[in-house]
Q: What sequence folds into this?
């Protein structure tokens, strides 16, 4: 498998002078749905990946734009407003816990990237420090998982209080481990009675927590939950995520559709961390199999990439693809793309050795 430079036209098409728009109608940005901090946070990660690889000013301009959006979204409590209308007015006083977690992920990731200008990293540090006081209020396991990701990355910033950051990671990861232990039985090895969206982020966060803390109990749960998830999403011999029209409730049946790109993207992130912790090259192969879901190795044997627009279709449905090409789908694909580039470079190095 060989990857060439990813295309960026749809990323720029979706982005205006406010930030990245949430939705598109087919390949056309749809201003009626406005923006979210959630999407702008993930766009910040993707733009930073572009800049890290290609060092072009156009990507730095995107980084400033997405950073400004996040700056504008933080509340005095430390959390973040999420939904913004096309008129630049936020539609809520507080965003969801998931959007909080994904924003912390983005801030931590970008704090760790010393290729970025110091003024940007100072901003991310300040926003993160303001947000720490809100962490104690979050209840959602996915929000906890995203926060762990961001905090793990932030450990690379020497001016932050590493002891405090590790305490937060310990608190959040032990909370997830406890929830897993309380919920598990012989046939169900998951954190909740339902497997819904962004499932891979849960074991992924525990791999990161293990890297930070070195506690075997955390690693055991990361492995057990990842293996349980794998049995479900590879039940047909190829990657098929749990459908969003019904999810998978304990004791029930697995929803077949709609299959969403965010699930494939985050599964690839999970395999990257599994490889980094366990040094088992089979995880690189599994990441490749998952990545091919975007390119036709899926239940409908269709590509989710529109070669005309460079966008990513929003889902696989019972009738084929959902032809809309929103921000989350595109960003999930680009995150997967850059993660695969890193993994394939590792594979080449192993081959040379």
A:
């Amino acid at each position: 498998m060989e990857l060439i430079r990813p295309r960026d036209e749809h990323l720029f098409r979706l982005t205006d002078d406010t930030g990245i728009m949430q939705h598109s109608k087919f390949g056309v940005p749809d201003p009626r749905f406005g923006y979210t901090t959630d999407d702008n946070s993930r766009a910040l990660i993707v733009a930073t990946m572009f800049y890290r690889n290609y060092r072009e000013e156009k990507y730095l301009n995107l980084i400033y734009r997405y950073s400004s959006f996040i700056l504008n979204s933080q509340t005095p409590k430390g959390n973040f407003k999420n939904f913004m209308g096309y008129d630049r007015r936020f539609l809520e006083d507080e965003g969801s816990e998931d959007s909080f977690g994904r924003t912390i992920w983005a801030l931590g990731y970008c704090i760790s990237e010393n290729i970025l200008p110091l003024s940007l990293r100072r901003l991310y540090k300040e926003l993160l420090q303001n947000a720490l006081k809100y962490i104690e209020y979050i209840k959602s396991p996915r929000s906890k998982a995203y926060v762990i990701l961001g905090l793990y990355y932030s450990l690379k910033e020497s001016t932050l209080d590493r002891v405090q950051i590790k305490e937060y990671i310990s608190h959040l990861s032990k909370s997830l481990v406890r929830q897993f232990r309380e919920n598990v039985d012989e046939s169900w090895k998951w954190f909740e009675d339902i497997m819904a969206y962004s499932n891979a982020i849960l074991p992924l966060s525990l791999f990161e927590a293990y890297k930070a803390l070195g506690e075997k109990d955390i690693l055991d749960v990361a492995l057990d939950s990842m293996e349980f998830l794998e049995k479900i999403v590879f039940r047909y011999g190829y990657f098929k995520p749990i459908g969003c029209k019904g999810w998978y409730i304990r004791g029930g049946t697995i929803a077949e559709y709609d299959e969403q790109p965010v699930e494939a993207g985050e599964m690839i992130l999970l395999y990257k961390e599994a490889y980094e912790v366990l040094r088992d090259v089979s995880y690189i192969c599994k990441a490749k199999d998952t990545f091919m879901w975007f390119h036709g190795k899926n239940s409908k044997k269709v590509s989710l990439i529109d070669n005309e627009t460079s966008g990513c279709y929003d889902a696989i449905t019972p009738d084929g693809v959902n032809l809309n090409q929103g921000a989350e789908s595109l960003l999930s694909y680009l995150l997967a793309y850059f993660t695969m580039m890193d993994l394939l470079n590792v594979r080449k190095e192993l081959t040379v050795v």
Remarks:
- The mean pLDDT is 97.
- The radius of gyration is 19 Å.
- Residues 9-352 form a domain with the Glycosyltransferase fold (CATH 1.50.10.10).
